[in-house]
């Protein structure tokens, strides 16, 4: 049993993130968190005043893990590194995908991240409104891909091939679904890796944004 005196806000938040990683955020409650910490439920309110404040702090932990766009490279390389890092972090914390844009009291890491992204786009020559468009587009792509990836029933090309052959193809008779049948068979045989779609789509997004800036 942990003494309440051994608690800290950091420990409370870190344990909340661990719980959410294992079980999702919907089941997270102060009582459940207190039990995991071996503390009294009411003692947690000394460190976080409400569930919303706890979620703010948890999302700040997620933003802290995301690599900021580096300043020493071109804007596309910088935003690509940031997008790749965001995808990796959200794969570790899939519960956070739907909460990244929901916080009205963002923490310091959240604000540092947004400032760095905006600075990268503005220094690259995107006017304020166009930088906002670019930020929305990039975030929508990364969050959407992360959400779709988290729901896939397979993790590797081999697992995809097995599912294509054993699950998908039997449901796709070629006389009724000729193109879907062909696609499933060809992709399974080719060792198709759905994870590679991220880079393909990201490159298209970045290329589409390039003509919209005013180079400095």
Task: Chart the SSEs and their pairings.
Layout: H1 9-23, H2 30-37, H3 51-65, H4 75-92, H5 108-123, H6 128-150, H7 157-168, H8 178-190, H9 197-209
Helix pairs in contact: 1-2, 1-3, 3-5, 4-6, 4-9, 5-6, 6-9, 7-8
Largest pleated sheet: none
The secondary-structure class comes to mainly alpha
Element order: H for helix, E for strand:
HHHHHHHHH
Number of E-state strands? 0
* Amino- and carboxy-terminal Cα gap: 60 Å
DNA-binding region: 29-48
Protein name: TetR/AcrR family transcriptional regulator C-terminal domain-containing protein
Pfam family, one: TetR_N
InterPro entries: Homeodomain-like_sf, HTH-type_TetR-like_transc_reg, HTH_TetR, Repressor_TetR_C, Tet_transcr_reg_TetR, Tet_transcr_reg_TetR-rel_C_sf
């Amino acid at each position: 049993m942990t003494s309440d005196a051994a608690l800290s806000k950091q420990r409370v938040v870190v344990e909340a993130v661990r719980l959410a990683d294992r079980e999702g955020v919907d089941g997270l409650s102060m009582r459940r968190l207190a039990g995991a910490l071996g503390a009294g439920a009411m003692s947690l309110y000394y460190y976080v005043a409400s569930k919303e404040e706890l979620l703010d702090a948890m999302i700040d932990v997620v933003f802290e893990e995301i690599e900021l766009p580096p300043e020493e490279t071109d804007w596309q390389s910088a935003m690509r590194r940031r997008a790749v890092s965001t995808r990796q972090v959200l794969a570790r914390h899939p519960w956070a995908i739907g909460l990244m844009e929901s916080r009205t009291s963002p923490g310091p890491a959240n604000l540092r991240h947004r400032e760095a992204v905006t600075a990268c786009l503005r220094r690259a020559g995107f006017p304020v409104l166009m930088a906002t468009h670019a930020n929305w587009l990039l975030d929508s792509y990364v969050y959407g891909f992360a959400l779709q990836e988290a729901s896939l029933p397979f993790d590797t090309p081999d697992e995809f091939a097995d599912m294509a052959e054993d699950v998908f193809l039997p449901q796709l008779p070629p006389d009724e679904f000729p193109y879907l049948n062909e696609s499933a068979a060809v992709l399974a045989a080719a060792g198709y890796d759905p994870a590679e779609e991220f880079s393909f789509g990201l490159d298209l997004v970045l290329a589409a944004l390039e003509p919209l800036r005013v180079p400095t």
